[in-house]
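Provenance

Sequences were taken from public entries as deposited. Structures were produced by running a predictor on each sequence independently, with no templates supplied. The record for F-box/LRR-repeat protein 15-like leucin rich repeat domain-containing protein from Glossina palpalis gambiensis is shown for reference.
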Amino acid sequence: MSNVEAEELHLMEMALPTDTGNENPTSELGSVVTIFDICWEDILIPKVLSLLTLKELFTFRTCSRSAKRLAEAALERRKEVNLSGNNSSTIDLAFSVLNTCCKHLENLHLARCHWLKDELLLPILAENKRLLKVVNLNECPYISPMALQPIIVDCKNLRVLKLSKCQWLTAGAIDALTLHQNNLEEIDISHCPAIGERCLLIFFRKLNKLTILSLANTAITDQVLVMISNCCRLLEHINLVGCTAISDYGIIAISTRCTRLRTLLVLCCPRVTERSLGPLRKHIYIDKTNRSEPNLNINDFYPSDFLIY
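Predicted structure for F-box/LRR-repeat protein 15-like leucin rich repeat domain-containing protein:
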């Protein structure tokens, strides 16, 4: 008998009711009901294991062979994976398990995962491309534009894409997004210096469903804001922190045509003044006060409350 089989036998013996008159409890093992006898698909997975965090699920997975099978069945039905900021020493091994098991993901959050590379990301994208709606790759420095290809081309249900501080993001990738992704509702391409005005003018022409947009610390101009105001009329939140080239002209265009606007972040935009902000303050949240701005480090500033990792 192997160590694993002995361990499972011991667990079942512990589950038996205490009976001092029964000298051989293992004789009744055939009639013992364990947690693994409860219906997995209808009860255990949707009612119990769906409430566990990924860490708890992986801990349960190590208990026995039956627990491993059950945990992996739960991972297969899991709709969200959130490993944002997790850079533990063995996280890449755990992610390989997710690559194998997860088949129905809708939300994939991998912000600030400094271990993430193309060879780890591409398999999970291939397995879940039909259902993915949210992909968060903010501050993932070691993947390349190649990893975006399945997201751009195959994720037809994609609604949210976050690529803040991805220095590898190119104008070519934005052009490909323009061709294949017209249903985005939220996009974050802040702190991406390679993205120029030309590709953004074409990009925003197609995004008429956009509600949340972050362009912080990019080289956008008033011309881009005018295009956004003409084509993205459903916009509710926009982050323009550190966009030093924009002025009151662009802000007036956004506020006039985007009638659903609720949040406007324009700190460190020296050419944006009370001329455009004053009339908006009664019904829109604006982070820039009408006093002189404090000294802020633009490169380290990531402000938005509505674009949380």
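The chain has three domains: 38-76, 78-145, 159-308.
The chain has twelve helices and nine strands.
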